[in-house]
Request: fold
Amino acid sequence: MPNLNLTTRDAANLKVDALVVGSVSTDKGATLAAGHGLPAAAAKHLAAVLTDLEAKGKRGETVRVVAVPDVAATAVVVTGLGAAADITPDVLRSAAGCALRSVATKTSVAVALPATDEAALAAVADGAYAGCYTFDAASTKVSVGGQSKAKKAPAASGPKISVVSSLGQGKSVKSAVERAAIIGSARDLTRDLVNTPPNLLTPQTFVDRVKAVAAASSGKVTISVLDEKALAKGGFGGIVGVGQGSVNPPRIVTMTYSPTGGRAKSPSVALVGKGITFDSGGLCIKPAGSMLTMKSDMAGAAAVAATVIAAAELGGPVAVTGYLCLAENMPSGTAQRPGDVVTMRNGTTVEIIDTDAEGRMVLGDGLCLASEAKPDVIVDIATLTGAQMVALGARVAGVMGNDDAFRSKVVDAGGAEGEDSWAMPLPRELRSGLDSVVADLQHKADRWGGMLTAGLFLQEFVGEGIPWAHVDIAGPSFNEKGADGAIPKGGTGYGVATLVNLIENHTS
Reply:
C-alpha cells in the first residue's frame, strides 16, 4: 500500500521519481497553478513545454516532463485542475488521483498542489492515496481441478507519497494526512473485496478475510458470526430464505469497536451492510449480461467492514457496530420461490414477490438485529435497486430515512468527503404497494418509485424511535467504465469516507 507522509520542504529539492504540480486552464491554454514552489527556471521550462504540447489545463489532463532544470525530481507531472476560480477540494482530490495513477509504479512521488487549507490538503492526500490502487489479479488462483482457492496475496506495493504542505506540520495538519491514509487503506480493502471473483468470495471466505484484516489492524475490533444454524434458530427468515438455494450458506457477522469498553458510556452508531457475494437473481434469474457485475452486490457489507476497522484505527469516542449480512443468491431445487412467505427476525411475515429483490430481505434481518442493541442511530448501505441508477445515475447515491435531520447529516458527510448523494423521500402513499393478502407485507411493490418502496420496506424493520438512514449505492459502488480521477475501474470503495465522517461527527 502507499506510504503517505507530510513534508514542508521545497518541492524543487525533493529527490523523488516524480513531482506532481497543478495546471489551470486559461484562454491561452494551460499555465502552472499557484503553490508549486518551483524556481523560475523550472517554471519557465514547464510553461514552454505546456505551450508546445498545446496542453489545456483541463481536469483529467496529465503531462509528464523529464529533466526539468533546478528540480531534483526525475520527472514533473503536471495535472490539470480546470479554471483557477473553480478549484475545490473535490477538484484537488480528482487531480491528485489522476496524477498518481500515471506514476503509481514509481518508488517515490511528491505532490505539490495548491492546498490553501486543511480540507484541501486532506483532499490532496486522499486523492493521491486513492490513485495508487490496483487490484492484484495474481492474488487469485484456480486449480486445474476446478476447485477455487485464494492464493495469499503479496504485500501490496505502492510509492512513498510526500504531500507538500504550505500549512506547516502542526498536529491538525498531520492528523489530516494520517486520517487520509487510514481511510485510503479502508477504501482499498472495500475495493479488493468487491473486485474478488465470486467463486473466491463466498459468505464464509468473506468472514475469513474480514477476521484476518481486523486481527492485523488495531486489534480493537471484536467479531462474532452467526452461521446458518444459528440464523435459523434465531428467526432470521429473510437471510435464510435468500441463502437457501446456494451450497454456500449465509452468515451475519457482527463487528464491534467499543472505545470505552461499554456502549452505555459512548455515543453509538450501527451500520448494516448488504453482502450478497453473488446475485444470480435466484429463481427469478437475471439475464446473462446483467450478472457480469453481480460480484459487486456485497459492496455495502464491504464498506461497513472497512469502516469499522477504520473507526477503530482512528480511535474516536463513538462506539461502532457493523452488521454484515452475507448470502449468495442462487437458483436450485432448494431455492426460495416467488409466493413463499417467510418470518423475519422481528416476527413480521413477508411474501416473496421477486427473488431478485433479495437485498432488502437480508437487510431487514440485519436492521432488526441492529435495533435490538438500541444504538443512537442506524445507517444501512446497499447496492439495492436499479431504480437508484435510473433516478441518480452512476455516481450519486440515494439517501432515505425516517428522520430528515439525520438523513441530511448523512448527505452532508458524503459531500464533505467527495462522495455525492441526494436526499430522497419515503412517500407514505407508496406504502400501500407493499400490502399483502397472505402476509404482513410483501417485499416489493410495482416498478414506479422502486428505490423509494425498497426504503419503505426497510423502514418496517427499524426499531421504534431510532433515527435511521438507508444509502442506496447501486450506481457509485462499481465503475464499469475507465478510471476517472481518484476512482478506479471496478470497485470504487464508495461509502467508507461518508460513514467515517458521519461517525466522527456523531454525538449522542
Notes: The first strand starts at residue 3 and ends at 7.
